[in-house]
Structures are given as C-alpha cells and as structure tokens.
Design a protein that fits this description.
Length: about 280
C-alpha cells in the first residue's frame, strides 16, 4: 500500500485547509498524523483537515473534518465552500449537495465566482448547543468571562458563543479564548466569537476556534454572529457582511431559519504527504 497521499492546500479568506480525496486514496490518518500534518513548522499547517469521502445519502460526496489537535469537527463553513467548489468543477455543475456530520449542505456558485453554502438551520435551544444546564441562550453569563458581557449561544453544526464588545481589536484572543472554549458549561467545548458592530449591516468579528485556536476566518462563526446579532437586535435586518481578519463573508439568516454564507475560495498549492514520515 502506498504511503504517498496527494493533497491540495486551499483557503477561504485565509482560513486554510489540507484537502485529500479519500474516494481514491486510503486517507485514514491517526490522531498523531493529523497533528504532524497540522504543525506549521514541521508539517503543512492547516486550520482544518478535510477528507472527501463517498456520499452516504445521495449527495456529491461526504466531507470529514479534523482539527489540528486531531479532534473531529462537526462543521466548517469555509471548508465546505472550498470542497464544494472542487466538486462543482469535477461535475461541471453549478450546485452540489455536500454531506457532513451536520447534514447535507446545498452549495452553489454565484455569478461573480464566489460560493454560497446553505449551512442549515440555526439551532438556539440550550440542549442543542449544548449547554450543561437549561438556560436562555439569548444572554448567557459565562463564568470567568463576565467582563465581556453576556454571550449569545448558537449552534451552526457546532457550538458558538458570541460576545458583543466595544473594541474587538483590543482583545488578547490567545489569552482569553482557551478558558472560555473549555468552560465546564460547554460539555462539547465551544467556538468563541467577539464582535463589534460597524453599521446596520457590517459586523467586525474575531474568533477563537475550538481545537484550532485563532484563525483568519470562520464560516460557521460568521453565521453564528449574524444569528446572534439578529436575536440581540444589534442589526435591523437579517443580513450582514461579517469582516474577519482574512476578509468579508456575506451572511443571511433566512426566514425559514437556514443560514446562507457567501465568499471566495482559493487553491494555494498541491503536494504529496509521505505518511511514512508522519508517525503513527
């Protein structure tokens, strides 16, 4: 069996991914191997490792998602758009359904070449986030993070805690992100977003991602941010441009509860992973 595994390095607004095709290659890595590939000095480096697998329920393919620490993620919005772009090009189609743990996600190419993904319905009940005890998810006091005000909790395939602050640029994310992510009230940990409103349809967001740390962009986090902004009355409508470290995503929380995300995708380079050098 070959130990060489072809990959693509892709990104959406600097939110970067290693993408492998598990339909034609044995792409089952160990936790140690995911960590080795994720090392930005000794490996390739990535925010998420995306494996394209055969579809399970009639979609174009199934996408498995792993974090640099080797843990599995339930959703990855920018990664979904990247893989959907590959699958649309492969099929010569303008729309595909990409299956994930979070369900089948409908993705389409826009007239300007960007990719829109329907991330599914936003879930806002405490047991859907999940939170350790029953509470109103609109304004949640997180022990140890009281200085940032209440969080609004949203599940967009994975759990998000969204804080609205006066100056998101002034925050030391590397220091304050980890203890909030791992707070005992979040039994599955949580992605942490800090947001400063810039106008009626513009929101500045920075993110600490569960299992990945600070990233240039987070698609599901941008979706959660707009849902939280609508729920809290921070914006008057149901759409906004979310400005991330790596650029902007256009988000709409539709009347039917589904959240749509639109943004660019790019391929940086291709390469070969030598699994024999990555350890077990």
């Amino acid at each position: 069996m070959s130990t060489n595994l072809p990959f693509l390095k892709m990104h959406g607004l600097g939110n970067d991914f290693v993408v492998v095709d598990g339909r034609t290659n044995d792409a089952a890595l160990s936790v140690a191997q995911y960590r080795a590939v994720g090392d930005r000095r000794r490996g390739v480096g990535y925010d998420q490792f995306l494996t394209i697998l055969p579809a399970k329920n009639g979609g174009a393919a199934y996408m498995a998602i792993h974090n640099p620490d080797g843990s599995e993620a339930q959703a990855c919005g920018n990664g979904t758009r990247c893989v959907a772009s590959l699958l649309m090009a492969e099929a010569g189609a303008e729309e595909v359904v990409l299956e994930t743990v979070a369900g089948g996600l409908v993705c389409r190419r826009t007239a300007d070449g960007r990719v829109t993904c329907d991330m599914g319905a936003a879930r806002i009940a405490w047991n859907e986030i999940p939170i350790a005890a029953a509470t109103d998810t609109l304004t949640v006091t997180v022990a140890g993070a009281e200085a940032f005000g209440p969080a609004t909790m949203v599940n967009i395939g994975n759990p998000h805690a969204v804080f609205f602050v006066d100056d998101v640029e002034a925050l030391d994310l590397a220091r304050i992100g980890p203890p909030i992510e791992t707070n005992p009230m979040f039994p599955e940990r949580a992605n942490i977003e800090f947001v400063t409103p810039l106008g009626p349809d513009r929101l500045r967001m920075r993110v600490w991602e569960r299992g990945a740390g600070i990233t240039q962009a987070c698609g599901s986090g941008a979706c959660a941010t707009v849902v939280a902004a609508v729920r809290r009355g921070v914006i008057p409508g149901r759409s906004a441009s979310v400005i991330l470290d790596g650029g902007a995503l256009d988000i709409t929380w539709r009347a039917d509860g589904h959240v749509e995300m639109t943004g660019p995708v790019a391929t940086s380079f291709s390469g070969i992973l030598d699994l024999a050098t990555l350890g077990g």
